[in-house]
Design goal:
Elements lengths: L2 H17 L2 E5 L2 H4 L12 H4 L1 H4 L2 H8 L4 H14 L4 H11 L3 E6 L5 H5 L4 E3 L2 E8 L5 E3 L2 H18 L4 H4 L9 E5 L9 H10 L2 E5 L11 H7 L3 E6 L11 E4 L2 H16 L1
Parallel strand pairs: 1-2, 1-7, 2-3, 7-8, 8-9
Antiparallel strand pairs: 4-5, 4-6
The chain binds adenosine-5-diphosphoribose.
Keywords: Metal-binding, NAD, Transferase, Zinc
Protein name: protein acetyllysine N-acetyltransferase
EC number: 2.3.1.286
Length: about 270
């Protein structure tokens, strides 16, 4: 890290150590070093399946039904390999240090919880939770159980085709169909009230690994800034939210967050 970047990191660490009460706002970039591709970068899902991209994964599958098993198989392989990376672990450490209040994430991979953060608002839902289309009941799936069920669904889809997908899905006690509880484009986001409340009370917001182009999630840094928080963005590239950042630390979150956390720890000793 060059000397300017080191100086900025030290300045930011000083601010965070003094202010505390952090809320982290994360996007797909935070999970990239866990092997989960981002959406909008070259080679990402929307880059490769543009016609369906505007309506998310379900849109891609509707646009390319014959390729649904291949797309879902790729998604399954990615989730099977994914583990919290040093960026996720640094956020859990900041919570243990009593500095980080909560994580507001756009990601559906459950990696913030697996890393150890206990207050995680999942605006776009979670792949590891099922929602009953009949009674609305939600059930959390253990990671391995989820991966096994997902794998069986794909195998059955290969045999019987996507048109029978609904008959292949798990059922709720009420008889309704379970679907993964992620938020498809056009559906209402989850935990928005709690997220807005949290960002309005924070004194530091870490904006991590997001292009900042999807609303209402991308409106949250503006709420935090209007409420007086210091906005610190960490990203290898500038984003649509960089204009709101008081400080921009350029680099991957898996590298910068652990360094920042160490700098903060030294100031608290
Ligand atoms: N560390 C941090 N950030 C990174 C890294 C990294 N190692 N690698 C890439 N990035 C940044 C990119 O520069 C980009 O700004 O991660 C961001 C990823 O942007 P997107 O792919 O647009 O992901 P995200 O912002 O989370 O998308 C928001 O869009 O498709 C929907 O529902 C989906 O939740 C998603 C939402």
């Amino acid at each position: 890290m060059d000397s300017d970047a080191q100086k900025t990191l030290a300045e930011v660490a000083e601010i965070v150590a003094q202010r505390g009460h952090i809320v982290a706002f994360s996007g797909a970039g935070v999970s990239k070093e866990s092997g989960i591709p981002t959406f909008r970068e070259p080679g990402g899902l929307w880059d490769r399946f543009e016609p369906g991209a505007s309506s998310g994964i379900m849109g891609v599958i509707s646009a390319f039904p014959e390729r649904a098993p291949e797309i879902l198989e790729e998604l399954l392989a990615t989730f099977r390999k994914a583990k919290p990376n040093p960026g996720h672990l640094a956020l859990a450490e900041l919570e243990r240090m009593g500095l980080l209040h909560s994580v507001v994430t756009q990601n559906i991979d459950n990696l913030h919880r697996e890393a150890g953060n206990t207050i995680v608002y999942e605006l776009h839902g979670s792949m590891y939770r099922l929602r009953c289309l009949g009674c609305g009941r939600k059930v959390l799936r253990e990671r391995e159980v989820f991966l096994e069920e997902f794998s069986r669904l794909i195998a059955a889809m290969k045999k019987q085709g996507i048109q029978n997908i609904f008959s292949l899905m798990a059922r709720c006690e009420c008889g309704g169909l379970f679907r993964p509880d992620f938020v498809a484009f056009g559906e209402a986001v989850q935990d928005l009230h709690e997220s807005v409340d949290a960002v309005r009370k924070c004194r530091v917001m870490l904006v991590l690994g997001t292009s900042g182009v999807v609303y209402p999630a991308a409106s949250l840094p503006g709420y935090a800034r209007d409420a007086g928080a210091v906005i610190i963005e960490i990203n290898p590239n500038r984003s649509a939210l960089t204009r709101l950042a008081h400080h921009f630390l350029q680099g991957p979150t898996g590298v910068v967050l652990p360094r920042l956390t160490e700098e903060i720890r030294q100031r608290l000793q």
